[in-house]
Amino acid sequence: QSDILLDLLPKYDLAEDDLHAVQVEKNELNKQLHALEAENVELITDWNEIEIKLEVLKSENMALKRQ
Description:
Elements lengths: L1 H65 L1
């Protein structure tokens, strides 16, 4: 039984190392995701401002056409 344990210990250590590497990668991906989400919020805000300006220009254009 101790032979089985001695055989499994290196595999357990490798699994722990793999788990740590995956956790580090997950943390990095989460940072990237948060940065992209923040950028997305900025883009949505910019887009909303553009849509508002477009509506103003449309209104001004209609007013000019009526003159």
